Amino acid sequence: MTQEEIKELKEKALKQFLSGESLTGKNGAFAPMLREFMEEALEAEMSSHLSDEEKGSKAGNKRNGKGKKTLKSSQGDVTINTPQDRNSTFEPEIVAKRQRILADNLEKQIIGMYGMGNSLRDISAHIEEMYDSKISTHVLSDITDRVIPKVKEWQDRPLEPVYCILWLDAMHFKVREEGKVKHKALYNILGINKAGRKEVLGMYISESEGANFWLQVLTQLNNRGLKDILIACTDNLTGFSEAIHSVYPKTDIQLCIVHQIRNSMKYVASKDQKDFMKDLKLVYKADTKDQAESALLDLEEKWGKRYPIVIRSWNDNWDRLSAYFEYTAPIRKLIYTTNAVEAFHRQVRKVTKTKGAFTNDMALLKLVYLATRRIEKKWNAPLQNWGLVVQQLAIKFEGRLELDLATNETKN
172, 174, 203, 291: which could form a disulfide with 357 (CB 3.0–4.6 Å)? Predict the structure, then answer.
């Protein structure tokens, strides 16, 4: 579907939902989705069929146009294009040749499983149990691969020119590669646009972090239309701040205070942790930067000889750890930690937690993409108190984020 068709589909779905009309019937907004899925499923089965024949003794068979079939369902009729082969040996599983009636509500199950990222084995077992229709995991694998173009299209979609806040953090997964299981990091970029709505800008797989990796990611964001980032919140990955400023030199960078605290406490003896944390809170919970710096000096005087590496880390990173002191409390709450993207990760984990090692990078991307699209549907309102926050940002970043008070909308 084109972007315009998707927009029209959303508008139609909302209208029908509010009026109580069927979304999956003949004229329902979701009918095109069902039709598209059924046709893609049949194409995947045909590709698998021709591939199997090519490996066997029936080489030479080819596609031979398409026919039409109208399937009756509990919600109305659905007309689909059915692929045909020259030798007429193609026997589809998902819609048999002589099948004219879909099992009640099967379309809802298909669309649900298509977007849930369930394992191929689970999907196959569910369909067989519920509808007495067998679909092999091999065929299901081909069907789910039809998501790949959608993943790539989503990864390359145009972005808004300005994002107020970006959070960047990683999830870690096991992926099979060349017969070995490797640990890979999946970095997700979560942003707040000028309307105050959350959006996942992209996800990127890397075996190791560094300036070169992040430079490629940020360059891609720039090529997709993102020209300015007001504030970027990171977990202090090596080379990341430098990469940001090489593409977005005006961006304010805030290192995650929570990550810094976690890393610091790893090197503090358990017997000292309670007292150390009491003194450390005076630093990052101070009302002003001057108060925080005074508390940091006191921390160094008391603990510097015992834990010099910990204190040195706070001093070396202080400029980017303390950036949030320049903002009011509502903005500080948003940027002092990467909790926003970590909350997103927890929702993704609900889908991926039962997985072992993914078969390849794309298998991982497919599942996280599907989970992301579901999660984003819940982000249908601006952040709390966004009207107040965006006004403060417009003043702080004058000329980079302007407000049109006549329409109460932002512009750039």
Answer: 174
